[in-house]
Amino acid sequence: MLDASNAGIPIHHVSILSIAAAVTGACVGYYAGRWSLRSTAAADRAAQRIHSGQLNECKLEQTEGNTATSQKTDPYNPLPREGFLSWDDYFMAVAFLSAQRSKDPNKQVGACIVSQDKIILGIGYNGFPRGCPDSELPWAKLSRSGDPLDTKYPYVCHAELNAILNKNTASLHGAKMYVTMFPCNECSKLLIQAGIREIVYYEDKAAPVRDTSPNEAAPGNIRNEDAYAASKRLLKMTGVKLRQHKLDRPIVFSLGT
Ligand SMILES: [Zn+2]
Q1: I want to staple 47 with a disulfide (CB 3.0 to 4.6 A). Which of 23, 38, 89, 106 is the partner?
Q2: Residue 80 gets which letter from DSSP?
Q3: DSSP E strands: which ranges in the chain?
Q4: Which phi and psi angles does 197 have, rounded to 5°?
Q5: Is 30 a residue whose pLDDT tops 50?
Q6: 64 an active-site residue?
Q7: Is pLDDT of 4 > 50?
Q8: d(CA 168, CA 24)
Q9: What is the 118 CA–ligand 1 centroid distance (Å)?
Q10: Exposed, middle or buried by CB within 10 Å (0-12, 13-18, 19+), for 74?
Q11: How far is the CA of 71 from the centre of ligand 1 (A)?
Q12: Which residue in the list 64, 160, 186, 198 is annotated as catalytic?
C-alpha cells in the first residue's frame, strides 16, 4: 500500500515515463518524485525472465528526453511490443495513481471500476465529501479527547464509494472493481448493491489478526477486524468473486523534473 507520502504528482509536465524491471526489493511507495509499485514475486519473476533471456531489460526502460524513441524496434517486425502492461496491472496501476489524489496522511486508497469489456467506468479515492474544506475536518485516526467527532471516520468517503458515485454509465451491473485495499463492510454493501461481481484487491484486509487495539479504520462503532470479517462474509454470501493481484511486474513512473 501507499503509506509513505501523500504528495501530489505534477502531471502537467511529463519528462520521464519509465516502466522498469527491478530485480530486487519488495516495496510499494512514493519517493522523491517517483511513484512505484513493486512486489517480491513480480520482481523475482522479472529477474528470472531477464536472466533467462525471455525479457530484455533495456526494452522496458525509457530514459529522459528520449521517451518516444528509446525502444529501437524493427519497423517491419509484425510482432507486438514486449513488456506491455497486463490488464490487471493496468487497472491496478490506475487505482494506485488515483490513490495519490488522497489527502489522508495515513492511508491513500484508490479504486477503479471496469466493465466486462475492460472499459473504465469510474475512479475514486478516499477523501472528504465535495465542498468540505480539507483543512476544517480532522484526518486523525484517534482522538486525544476520546470524541469520535475529532477523527476522520465520521466524515471520510472511501475510495470505493467515490468510484461508484463517479461512474460514467447508468449501471455497474456485472462490473469489476480494482482497489488498492480490501473493501470494508460498508463499501462491500455498496459494491454488492451496485452490481459489482468481482473485486480485485492489492492489500488484503480480509483476515486480520484479532487484537484489542482501539478501532482505527471502520466507520461507526464496529471494530476494525470485525468490519473486514463482515465484509468478507457479505461478499462470499453474495457470490462476489474475490481475487488478490500483486502485479505481474514492478511498475515505475517518474513524472516531472
Ligand atoms: Zn470502505
Answers
A1: 23
A2: P
A3: 28-31, 34-37, 110-114, 120-125, 176-181, 198-203, 241-244, 251-254
A4: -110, -10
A5: no
A6: no
A7: no
A8: 39
A9: 23
A10: exposed
A11: 41
A12: 160
Angle between helices 185-194 and 224-237 (to 10 degrees): 20
Cβ atoms of 225 and 184 within 8 Å: the answer is: no
C-alpha cell at 167: 461512474
Q: How far is CA 38 from the centre of its chain?
A: 12
Phi-psi region of 53 (alpha: psi -120 to 50; beta: other; left: phi over 0): left
Q: Ligand 1 centre from 250 Cα, in Å?
A: 27
The string of pLDDT tens digits covering residues 153-182 is 999 999 999 999 999 999 999 999 999 999
**Residue 185 Cα, ligand 1 centroid: separation in angstroms?**
6
CA of 43 to the centre of ligand 1 (A): 30
Average pLDDT over residues 113-129: 98
d(CA 251, CA 249): 6
Q: Which three cell numbers stand for residue 64?
A: 529522459
State the burial class of residue 209 (Cβ atoms within 10 Å of its Cβ: 0-12, 13-18, 19+).
Answer: exposed
166 and 193 Cβ atoms separated by less than 8 Å: no
Question: Which amino acid, residue 12?
Answer: H
The residue count for the chain? 257
- Bridge partners (DSSP) of residue 36 are 29, 252
The CA 173 to ligand 1 mean position distance, Å, reads 19
Q: CA 52, CA 21: separation in Å to the nearest integer?
A: 14
